[in-house]
Structure formats: C-alpha cells, structure tokens
Amino acid sequence: MHGARIPIWFFIGLLLTIYGAMIFAHGCYEAITGDYAAGVQLTRLHAPIWWGGTLLLLGLVYLAKFRPGKSNERR
Amino acid sequence: MIGWSGHLASTLPTRLALEATPLAHLRPLDIAVIAIYFAMVLWIGFYLKGQSNTGEEFFLAGREMTAWIAGLSFVSANLGSLELMGWAGSAYQYGILATNWYWIGAIPAMIFLGSVMMPFYYVSKTHSVPGYLDLRYGGEARSVAAIAFATEMILMSGVNMFAMAVVMKVVLGWNINFSIIVSSVAVALYVGLGGLRSAIFNEVLQFVLIWGGALLVPILGLYQAGGWGGLKTRIVTNLHTDSYFHLWRDTGSFAANPMGVHWTGIVFGLGFVISFGYWTTDFLVVQRVLAAHDLRAARMAPIIGSFFKMATPFIVIMPGLLGLVLLQNPDGSRRVLVGEDVTAACTLNSAGQVIDPASCSTAMGRTNLSPEQRAKVLAGGPSAELHTYNQALPLMMVRYLGPGLLGLGITALIAGFMSGMAGNVSAFSTVWAYDIYKPLIYKNGSDSHYVLVGRLSIVIGVIVSIGAAYLVQQFHGIMDYVQALFSIFVAPLLAAILFGMFWKRATRWAGFLGLFLGILFSAGLFLWVKLDPSRLAVVALSPDAKPMAENVFRALWAFCFAAIVIVVVSLFTKPKPVAELDGLVYGATQLPTEEWVPLYKREWFWAVVVGVIFVALNILVW
Fold it and tell me: Partners of B348 in the beta sheet?
C-alpha cells in the first residue's frame, strides 16, 4: 500500500519547479525589456533571475529524486 | 465581559467598512502563483482522502511519518501567521529582544521534549495530551484539559484568520470577509478530507514556501542597509539607542529595554513555563510528533525542528528590524508604524477625513510619529495613511518583491495562515472526538463513527473560529493576545503534566484540581489586570512593566499556583499503585531498548549540537 503513495517531497518539488520557472522567466523578461514594477527596490540585482533559478533547480532535483515509483521515501 | 462584547459589536461595522489603500496590485503572474498553491492544497486533500479512513489514519496520520516530516511539521505548526506578522511587528517594537521567543522560548523545551518526555507520550500510545492526562490522572483532568484546549484552538484559529485577512486587506485591498471565507473553506476542505496527514503535508509544504518566499526580504534588506553593521548604525542614528540589538544586556531592569521585561521573567516565565508549556504539552505541536513512525523518529523530530526554529528569526525578526529604518512614506520620510489602537482612533470617513480628531491626536501622542506626520494624518490625504506594527513584514515584501516574487511571498503568508488554521482545527477535531465526544457524549461508537465526528467537527470548528477572528481586533498586538491565551491555559497544564510524568506520588484529585484551579487563577489574574491596567505593576513586579511582561509573569504565577495545589492535594490523597503507572511516569516505566545506530543518527548527539549553537548565539548578541 505504501509503495503506491506519492511522497510529500514530490509535491514540494513540483511546486518549486513551477514557481521557479515562472519567476525565472519573468526575471529574464524584466532584464531584457527593462520593464520593472514601479516602487520595487534593488531591481538592478535581478533577484527574480537568481532566486527563481535556485527554486527551479531545487525543484527539479526533488522531482527527480522523489518521483513516484522511484524513491524509498514514501511518507 | 458583557461590556467588552458590546464594545466589540459596536466597533465591528466601522472596522469592516475600512477601505485601506492597497500597498500593491497583484499582476497576473502573482495571481497565478496564488491559484497554483490553492490547487495544490486541494489536490493533496483529495489525494489523501483515500488514506484517511480509520481513526488512527485520520487523527494520527497512521503513525508513519519520518523524523524529518514530523520535525518540519512540528516546527511549522508554530510558523503560522502569528509568527510571521506578529513577531516581525514585535521586532519592530522591541528589537532583537523578540528573538528570545525563538531561542530561550523554544530551544531548551524542544530538546527536553525529544530527550526526556517523548518516550512517555509515545510508549503510552496516547492519541492526545488530554488522553495522557486521562491515563495518568483520570477523566476529570482530561475533561478540563480537553475543553480548555478546544477553546484555545478555536480562538487561535480565529487569530490566524484575522491575520490573513489583515494581510490581504493591507497588501491587496481585499475585503476582510472575503479573505476569511476563502481561507476557511479551503482549510475545512483539505483537513476535512485528509485529516492530520493532510495538515502535516501542507505544513511541510508551507515550511518550504515560507523560506522560499520570505528569505529574499532580509537578504535584500541587509544589502540595502549596508549589512549588519550598516543596519546598527542607521538604527542608532535614527532612534538614538542600541537597545534593539541586545538580547540580555538591558534586561536587568524593566525600564532599560523597549519590551519592559526583566530577565527573571524571560528565563523563568518564558524560558520555562510558557516555552515548556507550549512545546511539550500543547497538543497542537505534540500531535505532529506522535505521528512519527517509531520512538527514535519521535525523539529526533523535535531536535530536527529546533535547528530550523533557531534559524527562523532571520526571516521574521530581521525584516522587523530592517523596517525600523528602511520603510518610507510616499514623501521619502521614515515611516513610523503604530499600534492597532492608534489606527482605530484615527479611522477615516468616506471623504478621507479623520472621524474623531481629538482621539486620534491623543493616540498619536503616545507614538514616535513626527509632528509633521501627525499633522498630515489629521489633515487627511494620500500620504497620511497609518500602518500598524503587524504590517511590517508585508510592507517589507512590497518594497523588495516584484511580480512573481510578490506572489510567492503572499502565497507563503497565505500558506502560513492556512497551515496555522489547519493545525488548530485538526488538533481540535482530535480532542473533540476522542477526549470530549467519546467519553462524555457517546461512548460506544464505531471507529468510522468517530472519523465522521472528526470530519464534522472540523467544519463546525472552522465556522465557530470565524466568529473568533473578529475578537482579535480589540487587542494592541496579535502576539500579546496569544501570549495571554498561553499563560491562561498552558501554564497550569504544564504543572499537571510535569508532576504527573515525573512524580509518582501525584494523585488523581491533585491533577484535576491543580489544572482546574490553575486555569481559574490564571484567568482571574488576566481579568484583574484587564479591569484595571494599573495592576500590571503588581503582577509583573514593577511599575515599568509592559503587557508582554505581564504575560510572562502571569504564566509563572499560574504555574507556581498549580504546582502548589498539586503537591498539597497529593499529600492528602491516596496515590495510584506504582504498577498502574507503567508507561506513564518516570521511574515506573521500562522504556523499550532501541537498536544500535551510528552517532550521527542519535538524538542526544544532535541535542548537544543544537545546545552548543544556542548558547553561542545568545553570547553573540548578548
């Protein structure tokens, strides 16, 4: 029964991957077009690119490691 | 109490009619981020429904969580809206002193729970903390604890709802009622479907979201402030004191620190009574550890949680400190945040004018607002809006997070709020079904009957807590209110549990009377000061004491009172035979031997590591 379950870490990996991809892509768009949201500070640091990229990478690692049918971590 | 309720009812329509100017407008990307979170939460709830059919599955997540999941859930159950907003606001008011609630107010108790207490909870196979009291003392103590706990959970759930509604109102301009209804429906659905397992899954999810969504704020804030040194210089320059950066140095007298507390209150009231009461006897957090798959995992879970608890001030306390000097008004001047009482006194009418200028002026006189800013508020206008301490964190988020990232930050807050509510209602449903309904109302139901009762109690609990959400608005700060609850319910409970677990002589009537009279004593102290605030000086032992000090000292006195009752009554009543205390009391229990594991897998090794880091951090910011 346990073997058929999706581990929580897979859900987390999925969410991080989706969020990371969305934020990273928007960060790239901002950097290319220069269209930054009004009032936001420190836009020159391009936080969405490196923060979104980090979330994306982390999410992909979790997806690969805990995908259903592969991991020993079931709970 | 009648007058207080009447006042609440009379102010509620005015408060609900408030239309704050939103701090930010969500873009489609932000809305997509929030929508994906809700979809994920509901998916998890429906997915786990098939795994929550029996009582053990629904109420204890099948007792099959790993140490990491139980540990993250354990610490995450406490990382709700109150933590994020309340303590960022407290850091704005009191500085780094607020970190005491994360360090001495949590770490020693977590280590104690994992190292010493967990075996008794786990070996006794109890389903709840009131259940342990039932086994140790009898039905009277269980009923008192269960009713008190269920009441506390409903009020806490209401606090979470209110905090979420405030964020949505401040940041997005959403209607308070809309936020409360959306969050409560989602929580009722996913906890009602998946039970504790669903709550735990979402707490782990929330933990990741909070770090992913909130960590960027202190990083960017520190960068802009010029690092830790730059932040200190700015605060000293603007506020003319370095008290905000000392954890212990200024606690030798009540008047020397912005919180108005004394180190004795922090060490004994917070570090012992409130902290141990919450982290070792509050079923909301203990329930997460009881879901661990074996005793070693149950012991390791609080230790794992303590590492993350120690790191949390970076994403909660730091934004509050940074907000002291980085938040700005639209005209570029430093923004000064105020208490809820000030914003209430300065309520605007539909034309943007202060309704009662005299009350507003008096309320602002108690703040650090500049004369120019006060004049702007009284005159009304777009740059005159006041913001409260509890809005420090969302204000910082809006300052640094652009599209997508803001959505993630808001989602982290929503997740925190909903997870907090979910924790409250899942613990409530367990206690209601097993400790109130089963022993007092319907004893002979089937397992599936109690699961059904549990599911229904979640829905009813959510509905009742919606009403409680509006009560919170009457208090100066969210955390002050919560600390009051802790000291009323948890301090006497701690006395009953500790004496029950470590003193074989403690008797049935001692446990019941200690708990019952302790709660009455604590509630009496609370009301005594409420009716005449000048009595705070008596409870907290100083005329310079502030409300936070009162909470800490009230907890201490309530614990001492309950302890005295337990000892005295025990000496005059007949104890249980030692044979009946097996698995319940230290010295009467043969703990199971655990298999050999390497050093790095042993809980005591990591307890020592976390203890060393804890001491080092306290010295670092002494």
Answer: B354
Q: Is B28 on the interface with A (CB under 8 A)?
A: no
Q: What is the C-alpha to C-alpha distance for residues B226 and B271, in angstroms, rounded to an integer?
A: 33
Phi, psi of B328 (to 5 degrees): -130, 150
Handedness of CA B293, B299, B300, B302 (dihedral sign): positive
| Contact check, Cβ <8 Å, B400/A42 | yes
Q: Do residue B405 and residue A51 have CB atoms under 8 angstroms apart?
A: yes
The string of pLDDT tens digits covering residues B224-248 is: 999 999 999 998 888 888 888 888 8
Rounded-to-integer distance, Cα B604 and Cα B591, Å: 16
Cβ–Cβ below 8 Å for B404 and A6: no
Residue of B nearest to A26 (CA): B404
| pTM of full prediction above 0.80 | yes
CA-nearest residue to B201 within chain A is A8
| Nearest C-alpha in A relative to B215 | A51
Q: B388: which strand partners?
A: B338
Confidence check: pLDDT of B596 > 50: yes
Q: Which residues of A touch B37 (CB under 8 A)?
A: 15
Short-list B370, B391, B390, B372, CA closest to B381: B372
Q: Please give the average per-residue pLDDT across B573-594, as a whole number.
A: 85
The span from the CA of A42 to the CA of B111, in Å, is 40
Residue whose token pair is 């007058």? B3
The C-alpha atoms of residue B285 and residue B283 are separated, in whole angstroms, by 5
pLDDT band at B499 (very low <50, low <70, confident <90, very high): very high
Q: What is the pLDDT of residue B13?
A: 34
Chain A residues 14-53 with a CB less than 8 Å from chain B: 14-16, 18-19, 22-23, 26-27, 30, 36-37, 39-43, 45, 47-48, 51-52
* B224–A42 C-beta distance less than 8 A: yes
Taking the C-alpha atoms of residue A61 and residue A14, their distance in angstroms, rounded to an integer, is: 10
Q: How far is B410 from chain A (nearest CA, A)?
A: 13
Q: Fold for domain B2-337+390-587+597-620?
A: Sodium/glucose cotransporter (1.20.1730)
Instruction: Tokens for B157, please give them.
Output: 């759930």
d(CA B505, CA B483) in angstroms, rounded, equals 31
Q: Please, what is the angle between helix B357-364 and helix B371-379, to 10°? A: 160
Tell me phi and psi for residue B388, to 5 degrees. Answer: -95, 165
B538-580: pLDDT as tens digits:
888 878 777 767 778 888 899 999 999 999 999 999 999 988 8
- The answer to whether residue B612 neighbours chain A at the CB level (below 8 Å) is no
Domain locations in chain B as residue ranges = 2-337+390-587+597-620
- The per-residue pLDDT for B511 is 95
Which of B150-154, B441-445, B483-487, B598-602 is predicted with the least confidence, judged by mean pLDDT? B483-487
Cross-chain residue pair A41–B201, CB shorter than 8 Å:
no
Q: Give the closest of A2, A22, A48 to B402, CB-based.
A: A48
Nearest chain B Cα to A56, which residue?
B212
Neighbours of B147 (CB within 10 A): 17
Nearest CA in chain A to B330: A39
Are B406 and B266 a contacting pair, CB within 8 Å?
A: no
Contacts of B469 (CB under 8 A, 6+ apart): B158, B159, B161, B162, B165, B180
Angstrom distance (rounded) from CA B414 to CA B505: 47
